[in-house]
Design brief:
Strand content: 5-15%
Distance between the termini: 54 Å
Radius of gyration: 26 Å
GO molecular function, one term: RNA binding
Biased composition (Basic and acidic residues): 421-446
CATH class of the largest domain: Alpha Beta
Domain ANTAR: 156-218
Number of domains: 2
Strand order of the largest sheet: 8-9-10-6-7-11
Pfam families: ANTAR (PF03861), STAS (PF01740)
Region (Disordered): 414-511
Helix content: 25-40%
Length: 511
């Protein structure tokens, strides 16, 4: 593996790295596969171009066909185009430069620039098959393909998804930077890269999304000793009447959030909906998962334009908000109304997820295509129970899994020795490295798969009272004010004790 293209590792969160390997399979020649990962911007383009030229010269000397795998290149634009154009110009008279698995933005830019000597393929296998066929053809005229039918040209849906992901990163990046700064100052870490690696390791080990972990780091009071949260007890999983079905593991956040939306869609017989939770570091609703929502409406949510939406009203008022006629209801802003009408939504309802203290920690929203639609009394009752289940689970998750991750982070950066955080030998425990799924990225907004038909609901009435999320009434009032300060901006006077505090909405109930 070659060294990173940037000599200053702390200048970028993920410096570009190029790995080379020989791939056999062509009848006349093998290919030198150059796998690229990391960030590429204008500042690092010159170093990347020099490293790329070195690899291309190596391929030419060895008689290998160079293939660039750009699936994991985070940034691009003009820097990529300029570098590829210079590389192609320097290779005049040699085999074309092959690019596989490029991101939609890079594919579109290369396609429109019509760079000579550069060919795009969706996958490595497709590139190898096409090159093998080309090597066996003799005197065959080039085939003409319409630009409109080009399968390698990204669709508008692909581009919209990438734009939404970039917007989500933009909203999350400042909080990540704040968390890195907190760790550097608190623990004397040498640079932001070391802080980021510690955050990423804790995120992956406990299967906690990075944006959720960094938000907790920012709002939590600093620890005073070897233990961040002294006296914290292991909390039992709350008794959930709806979300406990189907063997769902409450320790896995993504599984439970998808279950919330699945159950809501099934209860309300709704074709579309979404779930948003409050990020305490920025005091704003963040899109967690969605199904059936059109791109224009999702763009509105991702941009943080909450003013005049049913979500914002439900959070502010602390009770459900029904909009039976989107076209005529005065509660909605014109921007929100246009976005909903353009997507075919004519009625909607937002149900707040309220903690035991009465603070709104999230919102569940359903959409219907018929104006005048309202959930029945039975549906409204079931949706209220689902919101209570969600609040109880979210409070437990914050006090258990998230605080375990914070405690592990504290022990890691301080170098303290000690047993793992209450793993108790459970192989499904998020603290068990073997149980970790794919890492969660800051832009991890998920579109649910097609929800199944609702199951027969249990008739038991013994649900437990939702766990208190610990947010005080004063914080609730502050959050509802127009110019309210973000969560965690106060220092907190409750639940002090030696050893630091728990994030405001995550304080454990212990003496």
């Amino acid at each position: 593996m070659n060294p990173p293209s940037s000599s200053d590792a702390s200048a970028a969160p993920a410096p570009l790295v190029i790995e080379s390997s020989v791939v056999e399979g062509l009848p006349a020649e093998a290919a030198l596969l150059l796998r690229m990962s990391g960030s590429l911007d204008a500042a690092g383009a010159q170093a990347w171009a020099a490293e790329l030229r070195s690899h291309l010269e190596q391929a030419d000397r060895a008689g290998l066909r160079p293939v660039l795998d750009m699936a994991h290149v985070q940034l691009g634009g003009a820097a990529v185009l300029h570098t590829l154009s210079e590389a192609a110009r320097a290779r005049t008279g040699r085999p074309d430069l092959i690019i596989v698995r490029a991101r939609p933005g890079v594919r579109e830019a290369v396609h429109l620039a019509r760079l000579d000597g550069v060919r795009l393929f969706a996958t490595l296998d497709e590139a190898m098959r096409e090159l093998a066929r080309a090597a066996s053809r003799v005197d065959e005229l080039p085939a003409w393909r319409s630009q409109m039918a080009d399968p390698l040209r990204p669709s508008y849906e692909d581009l919209r998804k990438e734009v939404r992901a970039l917007r989500a990163r933009v909203r999350t990046a400042p909080v990540i930077g704040m968390a890195q700064g907190v760790l550097m100052v608190r623990y004397g870490l040498p640079d932001s890269g070391t802080a980021f690696r510690a955050l990423r390791e804790a995120s992956q080990r406990f299967n906690v999304p990075l944006r959720v972990l960094v938000s907790a780091v920012v709002v939590a009071r600093p620890p005073d000793g070897e233990v961040w949260f002294p006296g914290r007890r292991s909390l039992p999983v709350p008794q959930l009447r709806i979300l406990a079905r189907d063997g769902r593991d409450p320790r896995y956040r993504r599984q439970m959030i998808d279950a919330v939306l699945h159950e809501a869609l099934a209860i309300g017989r709704a074709p579309a909906g979404h779930v948003r939770f409050v990020d305490p570091a920025v005091n704003a609703l963040m899109l967690e998962t969605h199904y059936g929502c059109a791109d224009t409406f999702l763009d509105l949510l991702v941009r943080g334009r909450d003013e005049g939406t049913a979500d914002a009203l439900a959070r502010l008022r602390g009770h459900r908000v029904s909009v039976p006629d989107v076209a005529a209801d005065t509660l909605l802003s014109e921007e929100a109304r246009r976005a909903l009408l353009s997507t075919g939504a004519r009625a909607l309802q937002s149900i707040p997820v309220l903690s035991a203290a009465g603070s709104c920690t999230g919102v569940i929203t359903l959409q219907w295509p018929e104006a005048g639609h309202r959930p029945t009394a039975a549906q409204a009752e079931a949706l209220g129970l689902l919101a209570s289940d969600t609040a109880a689970w979210l409070s437990w998750y914050h006090r258990s899994v998230l605080l375990d991750a914070l405690e592990h982070l504290h022990r890691t950066v301080t170098g303290s020795a000690g047993p793992a955080e209450d793993a108790r030998g459970d192989p499904r425990r998020p603290g068990n490295p073997d149980a970790v799924d794919t890492p969660h990225h800051p832009e991890g907004v998920r579109r649910m798969s097609n929800p199944q038909q609702p199951e027969q609901r249990r008739s038991d009435k013994g649900a437990a009272t939702p766990q208190d999320s610990g947010q005080t009434k004063a914080r609730q009032g502050t959050g509802r004010a127009a110019g309210g300060r973000p969560h965690g901006s106060d220092k907190g006077k409750k639940g002090g004790g030696k050893g630091g505090g728990v994030p405001p909405e995550q304080r454990p109930d212990h003496p």
